[in-house]
């Protein structure tokens, strides 16, 4: 099996000629990407990452994970955006659906919580309560080493560690993933003697899940890093070597751009498994930050189904016709429950007796796809054979490669994010950060 794209249900919205025209542009974009002579070409480290990574560091990540597993009941993963979403997507996709809530005996690895992905004091206070006086470690992740959200959270948890263990012992429980040479976090790590892992210069945040950024927390959760990398390597091989006709990643980039050019300016990623929620969050960052610039782009949205069929389902079926839907379909469900017969059929469900929930879920999915198609929402499906490390690695690569191609088709630099800076400048000015005095005056007048 492999990760595949099925666009047969979008056939009524796209002609073979259109696919023919765009396939040429896609091949050109691929050539640029692989030859590294297109926009943003100093951020293409992710292309070869699955086969060309730092093996010594990879081994050190596994060692650090073992140490954390042996000396900590809780791991706090501090990071935001690209320094957060990949790890969470992977852990929720791969591990138990109630990972933090099942017994320690069953889980065998530390509870994992995320911090520094908002500026909520209430959230931090709550998380400090959850840690309580249990043994814990911290993985602080920031490529720049200067992002406000994780920096604040790190201050708080660093203090808690130092109060509990003393400065020297606390330093042994802090793992810093950051730039190899620069930034406040790197300086702090050197000063205090934390173990550090590197975010490579040529890998942007949203493409960093297969670096230490994602790999250390994923390893702590007990997932298999070798399988994850092997799957990504397979995804790379398929993306780089297959011709357009057999290349699902290229086809995905092609189809979504055809649909965009006909006014479908929103792509809704739909899943039917709650454990895929954060894969969608990761995907939204990857696509939104890569393509939404120069007043262009597809707006990436997501729904968790069937949950949201009871809320957003109305809009998708019947609202403004501005979207297409991409279903993430896990072909072989990893858990299942059989619906049993009851002697008296008071709830009217005996017609499902002997059927399992996956059959019901897939029937809901297939019925919904046809209903949405009838409602003029073109439907794409990304099929994932199984919910395991290998196919997640392949899926990550599938989407990363496609977004590079898609950005080039759109005529943007898919590897920068200039728009992320605007809010930061305003926030610093309003907070009174030194150096922002003039902007502060301006902004205060406008508030
Ligand atoms: O993709 C990006 O560049 C951003 O989402 C960053 O990952 C995010 O802002 C966090 O940055 P940093 O890792 O420098 O703290």
UniProtKB/TrEMBL annotation:
GO terms for molecular function: carbohydrate derivative binding; glucose-6-phosphate isomerase activity; monosaccharide binding. The keyword Isomerase applies. One of its GO terms (biological process) is glucose 6-phosphate metabolic process. Its EC number is 5.3.1.9. The active site is at residues 289, 424. Pathway: Carbohydrate biosynthesis; gluconeogenesis; Carbohydrate degradation; glycolysis; D-glyceraldehyde 3-phosphate and glycerone phosphate from D-glucose: step 2/4. It is found in: Cytoplasm. Pfam families: PGI. It comes from the Bacteria. One of its GO terms (cellular component) is cytosol. It is an enzyme of class 5 (isomerase). The keyword Lipid biosynthesis does not apply. It catalyses: alpha-D-glucose 6-phosphate = beta-D-fructose 6-phosphate. Its main location: cytoplasm. Coiled coil: none annotated. HAMAP family: G6P_isomerase. Catalyzes the reversible isomerization of glucose-6-phosphate to fructose-6-phosphate. Belongs to the GPI family. This is Glucose-6-phosphate isomerase. It comes from Roseburia zhanii. The gene is pgi.
């Amino acid at each position: 099996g492999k990760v595949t794209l099925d666009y047969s249900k979008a056939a009524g919205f796209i002609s073979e000629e259109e696919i023919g025209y765009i396939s040429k542009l896609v091949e050109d974009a691929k050539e640029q990407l692989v030859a590294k002579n297109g926009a943003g070409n100093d951020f293409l480290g992710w292309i070869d990452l699955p086969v060309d990574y730092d093996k010594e560091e990879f081994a050190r990540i596994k060692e650090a994970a073992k140490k954390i597993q042996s000396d900590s009941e809780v791991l706090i993963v501090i990071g935001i955006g690209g320094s957060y979403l990949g790890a969470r997507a992977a852990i929720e996709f791969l591990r138990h659906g109630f990972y933090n809530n099942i017994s320690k005996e069953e889980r065998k690895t530390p509870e994992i919580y995320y911090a520094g992905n908002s500026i909520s004091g209430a959230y931090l206070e709550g998380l400090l309560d959850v840690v309580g006086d249990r043994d814990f470690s911290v993985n602080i992740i920031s490529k720049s080493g200067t992002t406000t959200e994780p920096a604040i959270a790190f201050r708080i948890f660093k203090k808690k560690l130092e109060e509990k263990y003393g400065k020297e012992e606390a330093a042994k429980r802090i793992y810093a993933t950051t730039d190899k040479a620069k930034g406040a976090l790197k300086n702090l790590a050197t000063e205090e003697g934390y173990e550090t892992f590197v975010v490579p210069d040529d890998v942007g945040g949203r493409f960093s899940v297969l670096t230490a950024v994602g790999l250390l927390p994923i390893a702590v959760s007990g997932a298999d890093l070798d399988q994850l990398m092997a799957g990504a390597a397979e995804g790379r091989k398929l993306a780089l070597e297959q011709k357009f006709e057999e290349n699902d990643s290229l086809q995905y980039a092609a189809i979504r751009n055809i649909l965009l050019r006909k006014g479908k300016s929103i792509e809704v990623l739909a899943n039917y498994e709650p454990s895929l929620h954060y894969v969608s969050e990761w995907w939204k960052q990857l696509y939104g930050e890569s393509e939404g610039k120069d007043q262009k782009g597809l707006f990436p949205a997501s729904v968790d189904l069937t949950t949201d069929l009871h809320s957003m389902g109305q809009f998708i079926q019947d609202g403004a016709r501005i979207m297409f839907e991409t279903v993430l379909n896990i072909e072989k469900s990893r858990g299942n429950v059989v619906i049993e017969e009851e002697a008296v059929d008071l709830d009217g469900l005996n017609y499902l007796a002997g059927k399992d929930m996956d059959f019901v879920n897939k029937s809901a999915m297939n019925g919904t796809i046809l209903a949405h198609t009838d409602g003029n929402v073109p439907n794409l499906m990304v099929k994932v054979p199984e919910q395991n490390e290998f196919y997640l690695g392949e899926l990550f690569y599938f989407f990363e490669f496609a977004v590079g191609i898609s950005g080039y088709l759109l005529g943007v630099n898919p590897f920068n994010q200039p728009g992320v800076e605007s809010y930061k400048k305003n926030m610093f000015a309003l907070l009174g950060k030194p150096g922002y005095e003039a902007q502060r005056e301006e902004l205060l007048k406008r508030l």
